[in-house]
Design goal:
- By secondary structure, this protein is α/β, with parallel strands linked by helices.
- The protein folds into three domains: 68 residues, no CATH class; 246 residues, Rossmann fold, CATH 3.40.50; 173 residues, Jelly Rolls, CATH 2.60.120.
- 20% of the residues lie in helices and 23% in strands.
- It is built from nine helices and 23 strands.
- The strands form six sheets. Strands 2, 3, 4, 5, 7, 8, 9 and 10 form an eight-stranded mixed β-sheet that branches.
- Helix 3 packs across helix 6 and helix 4 packs parallel to helix 5.
Length: 553
């Protein structure tokens, strides 16, 4: 039996929050909508109601379905309640984070609310304590956690009340939720970061399949141009080994948890938070931060829900500080700022704050960030990246470097194995002799190793490529020539699922690159010498830069 979308989002004008209103005449059944999508794209999805087990058997036996997923509620664990703190003072120009949670019900924080979308769940159904706690951490988590090493960043929030409490009698329809979120994105484009500290119970049934919710949020985020920041989920009797949906959203920054050391800096993994990888080997979580935090009312609780707002607020300020930001560029900058050179299934790439904000250069380093459109199958080279003198000692390369690249990938509409239909290969090389260009960053073995080895060892088909190297040990690397050369190429697979016969039909794909060069001795002049060598070929990526400070991008 078909289902019908039963709520719509209206832009309220009164001070009181509007409740969801039923459509007087359903516009289209879920089955009719799926048929329309199938005719247009070759893939159609529908949320349907099956009256009995015999009906389910008939559907499975019919061969009409590629996959069948049960509809599962999206839930959070309530952190408790307490006395409200004094009202925060938030700049009216502070960046906005859309908080998709249980809503904001603490009056002391209304001054920090930039907008309030018509709720998806009623006040009686909403998980109010969790919504209040997460909102307080997005707005000013550093103020609640003075004993943690956190940047002092304040944000405004957009309240998107969409998560019911555990005992709410609320029928959950994934398609209905996606339609609701799509309307929120249309009405409030100023929210370029969305915090989703909620997950569906348990991992997906098949470890190779991306959840419907994770896939649909990714499609929505890509089309609307916002960056989802999603909690990885918490360990439960139903799951202790894989991220809970929608933490398998490829477009998102998925956040795991970690403990704090006695000095307030990030420590080991949090045992209460789920590890990766995601479906089909997806490298999740992307980042991790403190999961045991103090929040609204003085409550102290643990979970990936509370690490997520820390990343959301930092991402929102990164958006707000760049001239031409995109979600993937912001994602690349945050990953580039993390401390790990290898991905860890519990910590991801680490924590994106080491005392310096992602849009600034660490003293003794210089960072270049750019975006490019790459046609599949074509080799691209950036040939004239100058080698700064601070990267040379006794005539040899001596220092550290990292390259982070994020591809906006083509993905399988079926959400199954081989989810990523495009991949990126990239490396940074230096000249050694007349015609030799050995790799400084990147193994360049993705296309030469056997397929299974390349997938296991190099995560060949993952859209994030991160290469780091410390070449300050020993006497350094012998080189010739004054420049470095960056190489990049996009490859395709499984063209049949899109109805294509050649990779050129895919069109250009966007990649965000972040390259950091660091002096082994911490020489601050590396920024100025690189900027002078590049001249008019680059400009500052940072808005409102202070001309007396020369360590910005």
């Amino acid at each position: 039996m078909p289902t019908f979308t039963s709520v719509r989002l209206t832009l309220g004008t009164s001070e009181e929050t509007e409740e969801p209103r039923s459509l007087t005449t359903p516009r289209q059944s879920s089955i009719a909508r799926a048929m329309r999508d199938y005719r247009n794209t070759g893939v159609g999805r529908a949320t349907v109601r099956i009256p009995n087990k015999e009906g389910l058997r008939q559907l499975i036996a019919s061969g009409a379905s590629y996959r069948i997923d049960p509809v599962r509620p999206i839930r959070v664990a309530a952190p408790g309640e307490g006395a409200e703190p004094p009202a925060p003072v938030i700049d009216e120009n502070a960046p906005i984070v859309a908080v998709v949670d249980g809503g904001l019900h603490a009056r002391s924080y209304t001054a920090a609310e930039a907008f309030r979308a018509t709720p998806f769940v009623t006040n009686a159904q909403a998980d109010k304590p969790h919504g209040n706690s997460v909102s307080s951490l997005v707005i000013h988590g550093h103020a609640w956690n003075k004993n943690r090493s956190l940047p002092e960043l304040n944000c405004r929030i957009g309240t998107v009340q969409a998560v019911p409490h555990r005992n709410a009698n609320r029928r959950f329809d994934e398609r209905e939720l996606i339609d609701y979120l799509a309307e929120v994105a249309r009405l409030y484009p100023e929210a370029r970061v969305w915090n989703i500290s909620a997950n569906q119970d348990g991992a997906g049934l098949d470890p190779s399949e991306v959840s419907v919710l994770g896939h649909e949020i990714s499609l929505l985020a890509r089309s609307a141009g916002f960056l989802p920041v999603i909690s990885v989920g918490n360990v439960s009797p139903d799951n202790n080994s894989r991220p809970n949906p929608p933490a398998d959203c490829e477009a998102a920054i998925v956040v795991g948890g970690r403990q704090a050391l006695p000095d307030g800096t990030p420590g080991d993994r949090c045992p209460a938070c789920l590890p990766g990888p995601g479906p089909d080997g997806m490298m999740k979580p992307d980042l991790s931060w403190f999961s045991n935090l103090r929040m609204l009312g003085g409550v102290v609780d643990t979970g990936s829900s509370y690490a997520t707002p820390l990343v959301s607020s930092l991402a929102a300020h990164t958006f707000d500080s760049l001239r031409e930001p995109t979600p993937d560029l912001v994602k690349a900058l945050l990953i580039n700022s993390a401390e790990r050179s290898e991905h860890d299934p519990n910590l991801g790439w680490g924590t994106p704050y080491q005392g310096h904000l992602p849009w600034t250069c660490v003293p003794g380093s210089v960072t270049l960030a750019w975006r490019a459109q790459l046609e599949p199958g074509t080799a691209y080279y950036w040939n004239d990246i100058p080698i700064p003198p601070e990267l040379v000692r006794d005539g040899k390369l001596f220092g550290r470097a990292s390259l982070t690249a994020v591809l906006r990938p083509l993905v399988s509409p079926f959400g199954g194995a081989n989810y990523f239909a495009s991949r990126l290969e990239t490396s940074l090389a230096y000249q050694s002799g007349a015609d030799k260009w050995p790799s400084l960053l990147g193994s360049m073995k993705e296309s030469t190793l056997p397929e299974n080895d390349a997938r296991d060892e190099l995560r060949k088909w993952q859209p994030i490529r991160r290469h780091c190297r410390d070449f300050s040990k020993g006497s350094g690397l012998g080189f010739s020539g004054p420049h470095l050369r960056l190489y990049a190429r996009v490859f395709m697979r499984d063209l049949y699922q899109f109805g294509w016969t050649h990779h050129s039909q895919a069109g250009a794909q966007e990649v965000a690159f972040v390259l950091t060069l660091s002096s082994a001795d911490g020489e601050k002049s590396i920024y100025d010498s690189t900027a002078r060598a590049l001249g008019n070929f680059v400009e500052s990526a940072v808005l409102n830069q202070d001309i007396e400070v020369s360590n910005e991008l």
